[in-house]
Structure formats: structure tokens, C-alpha cells
Specification:
The chain is an alpha/beta fold. The protein folds into 2 domains: 81 residues, Winged helix-like DNA-binding domain superfamily/Winged helix DNA-binding domain (Arc Repressor Mutant, subunit A), CATH 1.10.10.10; 222 residues, 3-Layer(aba) Sandwich (Rossmann fold), CATH 3.40.50.150. The mean pLDDT is 92. The structure holds fe (ii) ion. Fe (ii) ion (FE2) binds next to loops.
Length: 353
């Protein structure tokens, strides 16, 4: 006999264990994903449940005999299929436009930029865990530039890039659209790489070392038209990366871009973020689902994601994605520029550190 509340009961157990908001619906989404994949990382991709929550849900499903964690794969048991039938849980449906992968952006005028960028990126410094790095596919970096160009946020504008393991600054520089690109980055390897490439190619790109925990220096304060960043996703990191970006903007109707995941951020965290944005008197003008797709990074085995994962198999394809946000400032927007108060890299939902 399968109890009526079994999905809610599992959610409650996981909620108590992880302190992450988890509901019966999340258990459903996991059981949905399991019908098309036995790979943990793909389950995260389809279900959009945070990594630590999905891990605990799967372990609890295993304890209850609903799935079986066997070796590297996760399979649905007979009891699992009974539950899927009883609760009418459908398979996931995921089909994006094959031309733009759902980004809604054409790279037609950026083919040359993409070609050059790919060549340059071959020699990029590898992502390291110390700074929670992980970069996107080259097509994505160039798509960001195309997106900003489509919004007229790049043409003859000053662009501030906060943290740039994606090398967005290089792609922006290659497009020759912005008047100036400034990169603030903590990793000396990246700063040197970006400056070297900028000199070699004669780009209007300049990188300098900066720690997000410190206020934005005076010379960068209220100076730029546009910022782009890819924050770590603890609440403190979101607040810092985004408010530093906003502090760099010169006035109303300036734009900011950043990616937010579901893998490390529950919708409750999204709510916190969106409320914070509104409180700073900026509005969200665009959100593009799974715009950013990340290259599987070299340090994956050492991350919390791998430690909490119910099976220890490395991802076989890209699985970590984020929604691209675009915001715009209103009159009276707040430039919050105080020093950091908390740890920026770790909280209950984080998993790539
Ligand atoms: Fe398309």
C-alpha cells in the first residue's frame, strides 16, 4: 500500500535534514526526471531542485525502496513505478529552439568574434575552487555580448565586468562595440591573462585585482553604463556582487546582467534576490532561462556537490545552467557599497565550493 502523503513525508524528512525548503512537488520533479535519465547531474538539470536537496531526496527514496542507488546510476524500482503511476507523474519535456538554444539571440554578426574568442580561450587559466570559479561555453560568452548589444547596453558604452573567469571582457572587447571595458577580478592569473590579450589584440579592455568583500573603489564608483557579473550564490555573495555592480552605474536607466541558478539557489533565495533588487530601486527587465551553460570544471570531484551526490560518477555532459537576469536602474536607486559581513562562498544550498 502506498500512503497518500508519501511524497510530502519524504519532503519533510529532507527539509529537516538540509534546512532547505523542499516540498512534495520537488520529490515529484525528481521522479519525473528519473524517467528519462539515471544520471544524477541530469536529474538536477531537469528537476531544478538544488543539489543538496536533490541528493537527500534521492537517498530517502532509496531508503524507502522507491529508487535504487546502484553503482554509478540511479534506477526506479517497481515500487517507484507504482508511485509514478498512482500520482500521475509525467516525464520532463524540454525542447528549446535548436538555432539559438533558447537564448533568443542571433550570433550572425558575431561569428568573427566567436572564432577569435575560441582561439584565445584555449589558453585561459583553468577554473579553480578557491574562488568558486566555473566558466560558461564560448558560445555563451559571445551570446552575452550579443545580448547586451541587442539591448544597446554596449554600443559606445562603458562596461564594468565584476569577476571574469568567463572572459566576457575579451569577447566584448573583440566586438569593438564598447568605449571601454573594465574588469575587476580577484584572481591574479585572470587579470594578467586578460591584460596580456588586451594588449596583443589592441582591445579597450583593462583588468585589475579586486576583492568583492571590499567596497568598490572611488575611481570605479558611479562611472559605468552597464555591468555584468556571475555571482557566487550565497545570499551574502548575491548581495555583494550585484550591489557592487549597481554602485558602479552612473545613473537611472543603466543596465546590469547576472546569472542565477536553480542548482544552488532555491526559489526562496530567488525571492530574497528579487526583493533586494526592488528595494534597491532597480527593475528586472529580462530573464532568460538556461541562457548560461557552464563547462564542467576540473575541480568537480572536490566540490560539495560531489560529496553530497548520492552516486559518485562525474558529469558526462554540461548540467550546470543559470537564468540570465537583466536589470535596469530607476531614479533614486541605491548604491550599497559597504564591506562584506559574512562568508560569501558557503551556505546550506551551495555546492560548487
Ligand atoms: Fe531561437
Amino acid at each position: 500500500m502506498i500512503g497518500e502523503n508519501i511524497l510530502e513525508n519524504i519532503a519533510e524528512i529532507v527539509r529537516e535534514k538540509t534546512r532547505i525548503p523542499v516540498y512534495g512537488v520537488d520529490v515529484r520533479r525528481i521522479l519525473s526526471a528519473l524517467q528519462v535519465t539515471d544520471d544524477f547531474w541530469e536529474i538536477i538539470f531537469y528537476s531544478e531542485v538544488t543539489v543538496p536537496a536533490a541528493s537527500e531526496i534521492l537517498k530517502e527514496l532509496d531508503r524507502k525502496g522507491i529508487v535504487k542507488l546502484s553503482g554509478d546510476v540511479i534506477v526506479i524500482t517497481e515500487k517507484g513505478y507504482e508511485i509514478i503511476k498512482k500520482f500521475e507523474i509525467p516525464k520532463p519535456y524540454y525542447k528549446k529552439c535548436p538555432t539559438c538554444s533558447g537564448r533568443g539571440i542571433s550570433l550572425e554578426d558575431f561569428e568573427e568574434v566567436l572564432r577569435e574568442f575560441k582561439k584565445i580561450a584555449q589558453n585561459r587559466p583553468e577554473a579553480i575552487q578557491q574562488y568558486d570559479q566555473g566558466y560558461v561555453l564560448p558560445e555563451v560568452t559571445v551570446s552575452r555580448v550579443a545580448l547586451m548589444a541587442n539591448k544597446m547596453d554596449l554600443q559606445n558604452k562603458r562596461l564594468l565586468v565584476i569577476g571574469d573567469d568567463d572572459l566576457t571582457s575579451i569577447a566584448a572587447g573583440l566586438s569593438n562595440l564598447p568605449k571601454e571595458v573594465v574588469v575587476l577580478e580577484i584572481d591574479e592569473r585572470l587579470v594578467n591573462f586578460i591584460n596580456k590579450i588586451s594588449e596583443e589584440y589592441g582591445l579597450k579592455v583593462n583588468a585589475e585585482i579586486y576583492d568583492i568583500r571590499n567596497p568598490l573603489p572611488e575611481r570605479h564608483y558611479a562611472k559605468y553604463d552597464t555591468f555584468i557579473t556571475d555571482p557566487s550564490e550565497t545570499r551574502e555573495a548575491l548581495r555583494l556582487f550585484i550591489s557592487r555592480g549597481i554602485s558602479g552605474l552612473h545613473g537611472p536607466r543603466c543596465a546590469g546582467y547576472f546569472g542565477i541558478t536553480r542548482a544552488e539557489a532555491s526559489l526562496e533565495k530567488w525571492y530574497y534576490l528579487q526583493k533586494m533588487l526592488l528595494d534597491m530601486r532597480v527593475v528586472i527587465t529580462d530573464m532568460i532561462h538556461n541562457f548560461n551553460i557552464y563547462v564542467n570544471w576540473g575541480y568537480a570531484e572536490k566540490t560539495r556537490a560531489m560529496q553530497v551526490a548520492p552516486v559518485k560518477k562525474a558529469p558526462k555532459r554540461e548540467w550546470y545552467t543559470s537564468t540570465m537576469y537583466r536589470i535596469e536602474t530607476l531614479e533614486g536607486f541605491v548604491r550599497y557599497n559597504e564591506p562584506a559581513k559574512e562568508d560569501i562562498y558557503e551556505d546550506e544550498e551551495s555546492s560548487t565550493v
